Amino acid sequence: MKLYNTLSKKVEEFRTKTPGLVTMYTCGPTVYHFAHIGNLRSYLMEDVLERFLAYEGNEVRRVMNITDVGHLTSDADTGEDKMLKGARREHKTVMEIAAYYTEAFFIDCEKLNIKKPATVVPATSCIADFIAFVQVLLDKGFAYEAGGNVYFDASKVKDYYCLTGHAAEALKVAVREDVSEDGNKRGKNDFVLWFTKSKFDEQELKWPSPWGLGYPGWHIECSGISVKYLGEYLDLHCGGVDNIFPHHTNEIAQSEAYLGHPWCTHWFHVHHLNDESGKMSKSKGEFLTVSLLESKGYDPLAYRYFCLESHYRKPLTFSFAALDNAAKAYKKLIARLAALSPDKGAPDEALSARYRADFLAAVGNDLNTALGITLLYSLLKEPASDAAKLAVAADLDRVLGLSLIEKAALLRASAQATAGAGGASAAAGGEACTGSEAGSGSDGGDGVDRGDPEVAAIEAAIAARAAAKKAKNYAEADRIRAELAARGILLTDTPEKTTWRRGEGK
Ligand SMILES: [Zn+2]
Predict the structure, then answer these.
(1) CB-based contacts of 186, cutoff 8 Å, min separation 6
(2) How far is the CA of 399 from the centre of ligand 1 (A)?
C-alpha cells in the first residue's frame, strides 16, 4: 500500500524489512482516566491500518504499551505525574487506577471494534529492561547523571529533529523558552531517562537501580518495549500527531543511540479530533467518552463510521449534528444490507475479485477509508444477486470493522420475527408499543434524532427476542439483549411484557 510517512514527509510505498511480515508498534494509553473519543480516533485508524495490512496478506505483529508510570502532564519533563494525579483524584493507589482504566480502555475499544493488539505490555512489567537500556546509553556516552537523575544528551544525536523537520525546530525551542527548565539539563532538548529525584515525593512506584531508587521516564518505555518485543528493526510506529514531539522524536534519538543504526522506517500519525471550540481535551467542556455517546443513544459503531468517512491525516471536527449524520448514514447502510436476502443467489467470484481489487487500490492509497465506504454504496447498485453482494460486503468489512453483516442479520431477523408475530413491521416504521417507557432515559434536549425508525428497530429486536424465548432459543435471546445493551438500551422483563429504556451514562 501507499502510506504517508512522517519521517520522509511524503506518501510512499510501504515496505517492510521482511516481505510479508509487518512489525508494528503503537503508543498505548496512559491509564489515569477514561479515553476520550479523540484519543480513540487514533486507535481506531491504527486498527483499520492493521486490518488492511492483514487483508493484503501480511502477517502483522503488533505491540502496544500501557503507560502506568512516568508520564508527566506536559509530555516532557515538567508538570505532574498523570498516574499520581488520577490516584489522588480517586483516593486509590496508582496500581488500582492503572488496572481500572486499562480495563475501561479495552472495553471502549471492543465497543468500537478495535482489536486488542496481540501483545500488550504495561510499562511497570519491563523495569529491568529499561534499566539495562539506560545503562547502555550511559556506557556509549549518550546519557549523563545529574542531580540524581539520568538524562539523554540530545546534542550527541546527528539529526534530532528528523521527524518534526527543521522548520519546527525554531518554533519548538521558542515555545519551550517559557517552560521552567530543569537546571540539571545540559541542553534544552535533553530529557529524563530515569528519575530518582523529582518533585514527586509521594511517587508510589519506585524501583532500585544503579542510580538509586526511582522510576523510568515516559519515552524510554516505548523504545524499551519495542526493541524487546519487536527487535532491532521496526517497520511501522503509530501514534497521534501530538506524539511527534517530543515523544517520538525522543524515542528515535534514544533507540538509534542504543542500537547504533536506523530503527523505524515508517511513522504513521493520526490527526486530532477537535470539538467546535478547538482541540479536544480532558480538562475542558463535556468529557466525550464512548459511554457518554451510548448514554445519548448512539451506537459506538456510528462513531467508527464517522471516523472512517474522513481522512486520518486531516483534523476532524466533532459535533453531535455531524455524528447524527454519520449515525443516520450507517443505519441506512445496515437497512439496505438487511433488505438483501442471503438465500437469493450465490457468492460471485468475479464480483468479489473485482471489488477486492478496487478496495485494495482505494484504501491502499494512504488509507482512504472514505473511498472504501463509497465502494459499499456502488456494490448495492450492482446487477448481482443478494448473496453475491453480501459476500462482498462481508469481505470489505474485514477491514472496515463495521459489523455490517451481523447488524444486517439482526435487523432482518427482527423484522421477520415482528412480521411473523403479527406486530408492526420494522420497515414500516410503525410505533409498536411494547415499551411503555420508550425513550424515557436520558433525553436532554441534546439534538439527537430519536425518530421512529430507531424506536421501531428496538421494538423489532425486542419482538425477535420474545420469539427466540418462545422457541426456547435462550442463547439467541441473550445475544439480542446484549446487543441492545451495547447500544445503551436496557430491557426489563415482567410477566406481561418487556419494557425498555436508555441507560444512563457511567
Ligand atoms: Zn510511545
Answers:
(1) 144, 146, 151, 153, 155
(2) 25
Q: Which amino acid is at 402?
A: L
Q: Alpha-carbon distance 420 to 397, whole Å?
A: 30
Range in 42-46, 89-93, 310-314 with the lowest mean pLDDT: 89-93
Q: What is the CA(67)–ligand 1 centre distance, in A?
A: 9
One-letter amino acid at 241 equals: V
With contact defined as beta carbons under 8 Å apart, do 218 and 67 qualify?
A: yes
Pairing of strands 191-195, 215-216: antiparallel
Measured in Å, residue 63 CA sits from the centre of ligand 1 at 11
Which domains does the chain possess? Answer: 2-270 (3.40.50.620)
Ligand 1 center from residue 468 Cα (angstroms): 47
Beta bridge partners of 60: 22
Residues 6+ apart with CB under 8 A from 351: 382, 384, 388, 389, 392
The pLDDT of residue 445 is 35
Q: How confident is the model at residue 222 (pLDDT cuts 50, 70, 90)?
A: very high
Q: Burial of 395 by CB count in 10 Å (0-12 exposed, 13-18 middle, 19+ buried)? A: middle
Round to whole Å and give the CA distance between 300 and 474.
26
Distance 248 CA to ligand 1 centre (A): 7
Question: Ligand 1 centre and the CA of 122: distance in Å?
Answer: 12
Centre of ligand 1 to C-alpha 147, Å, is 26
- Dist. CA 224 → ligand 1 center (Å): 10
Mean predicted lDDT score pLDDT of the chain: 87
Q: How far is the CA of 408 from the centre of ligand 1 (A)?
A: 38
What whole-number distance in Å separates Cα of residue 439 and Cα of residue 431? 12
Task: At 108, list the grid cell.
Answer: 471502549
> What protein residues have CB closer than 5 angstroms to ion ligand 1?
27, 222
User: What's the angle, vertex CA 56, arms to CA 51 and CA 389, rounded to 5?
Assistant: 80
Among 77, 49, 84, 331, which residue's Cα sits nearest to residue 193?
A: 77
CA distance 413 to 424: 14
